[in-house]
Amino acid sequence: MNDQLPSLPPQPISPLDGRYRAAVSALGDHLSEAGLNRARVHVEVEWLIYLTSHAMFGAAPLEAEHVQQLRAFAANFGDLEIDALAEIEARTRHDVKAVEYLIRGELDRLGLGGIAELTHFACTSEDINNLSYAITVKAAVEQIWLPKLRAVVGKLAALAEQHKDAAMLSRTHGQPATPTTMGKELGVFVYRLQRVIAQLEASEYLGKFSGATGTFAAHLAADPTADWPAISREFVEGLGLTWNPLTTQIESHDWQAELYGKASHANRILHNLATDIWTYISLGYFRQIPVPGATGSSTMPHKINPIRFENAEANLEISSALLDSLSATLVTSRLQRDLTDSTTQRNIGVAFGHSLLALDNLERGLGEIALDESALAADLDGNWEVLAEAIQTVIRAEVVAGRSSIADPYAVLKDLTRGHRVGPAELAEFVQGLEIGDEAKRRLIALTPATYIGVAPALLRFLD
Ligand SMILES: O=C(O)C[C@H](Nc1ncnc2c1ncn2[C@@H]1O[C@H](COP(=O)(O)O)[C@@H](O)[C@H]1O)C(=O)O
């Protein structure tokens, strides 16, 4: 068809940059080509400032105004610099070398041409790249992705608290089972997510800064008297990162594998949440609040579809597939380096973008559901046989206490309930006829599926 049609104007191929742009655009500030290049300029400028402020090779410390101008150059990295870099890179065919030339140009503009040779001094590109990735990934995770995850967990925790007493039939294997409360079930997800958030918050972001093969060889050749490992450590830690002292040319990316593993795990817990909420909606336990003006189905006017949870489910799967691939592949680099990690790392933002999009949908979806307590009550009332577990357990206790001699209580209850429906009257009559103590009998007669919830509501106190 396209053979006959004129071409469209240039279009984004990724839905993150098209249809879903609004939900994820904040990530682009860090995890994009421009975000990476801004961080590269920042690292190069800080290294220049470090070298001059320590008067390395007799360089005079920069005047405060020049320091401020250079830092402003990095901070104000924008359209002009993006275009200039594209032009330089078209010539150099080397993205980091292009950044070096951009900075040299700025040094000339500021009248600082005398220190131009300190730009990218003794650095291999990876020295700049690994620090830039650590800085940008840290910012994206700590400032954008984790806050959104915390917002979703906060919303979920509020729902858990609101519905902590709402008794609900549970379904192990999809079959009626010992009741619980909706709040407790949501609380399980809050607890799981709080754990993984704590692990994510403890993530380390490592940086190396040790030259072409991690030996400081060029550094030492230039100044044999300096303690280059100590300088490297001070510089890396000064950027807010954890120093990695022992690497090949590249930072080994183990921190990335760890981080993406944890993020992927968080995704999978959220995926479980999305499919459970979808199922509760399907069971009628949650009603979807109609959004004014919205359409459910294009042909079935009555419908409100759980599209937020379905969108989240799919995007969490894509995100985890990418995060898993990043974790699995980034930890291998042939000998002292191969360049496979370069193009792989350009997809970190895509991986977090799909997760952020899913979080956005979950947050909105959780705000558009309301518990239908009558649906919960009706299901409980239709499944009195779930009390069989309580009755057989009480009989066992009575046998041990010497108040009953019933042989094999489990089998007795199995005969009564397995595969049949048993109503309240039948169960009461059964309990009345049991050879057990009066107090136990009273307790069992008082029990209904809606009150057979153990201490479910109180378990929420174990949440942070
Ligand atoms: O400091 C160095 O550059 C040392 C050099 N290793 C390299 N380290 C980092 N980047 C390098 C390296 N080599 C190439 N390039 C440039 O990486 C860019 C790769 O582009 P893409 O595949 O699109 O991610 C693309 O811009 C490439 O030009 C070595 O020989 O060991």
Automatic annotation (TrEMBL):
Superkingdom field: Bacteria
Domain Fumarate lyase N-terminal, chain residue ranges per copy: 18-312
Pathway: Purine metabolism; IMP biosynthesis via de novo pathway; 5-amino-1-(5-phospho-D-ribosyl)imidazole-4-carboxamide from 5-amino-1-(5-phospho-D-ribosyl)imidazole-4-carboxylate: step 2/2; Purine metabolism; AMP biosynthesis via de novo pathway; AMP from IMP: step 2/2
UniProt xrefs under InterPro entries: Fumarase/histidase_N, Fumarate_lyase_CS, Fumarate_lyase_fam, Fumarate_lyase_N, L-Aspartase-like, PurB_bact, PurB_C
Keywords: Lyase, Purine biosynthesis
Adenylosuccinate lyase PurB C-terminal domain: residues covered: 333-453
One of the Pfam families matching this protein, by short name: Lyase_1
GO MF annotation list: lyase activity
PANTHER family: ADENYLOSUCCINATE LYASE
Function statement: Catalyzes two reactions in de novo purine nucleotide biosynthesis. Catalyzes the breakdown of 5-aminoimidazole- (N-succinylocarboxamide) ribotide (SAICAR or 2-[5-amino-1-(5-phospho-beta-D-ribosyl)imidazole-4-carboxamido]succinate) to 5-aminoimidazole-4-carboxamide ribotide (AICAR or 5-amino-1-(5-phospho-beta-D-ribosyl)imidazole-4-carboxamide) and fumarate, and of adenylosuccinate (ADS or N(6)-(1,2-dicarboxyethyl)-AMP) to adenosine monophosphate (AMP) and fumarate.
Name of the protein this chain belongs to: Adenylosuccinate lyase
Organism (species): Gryllotalpicola koreensis
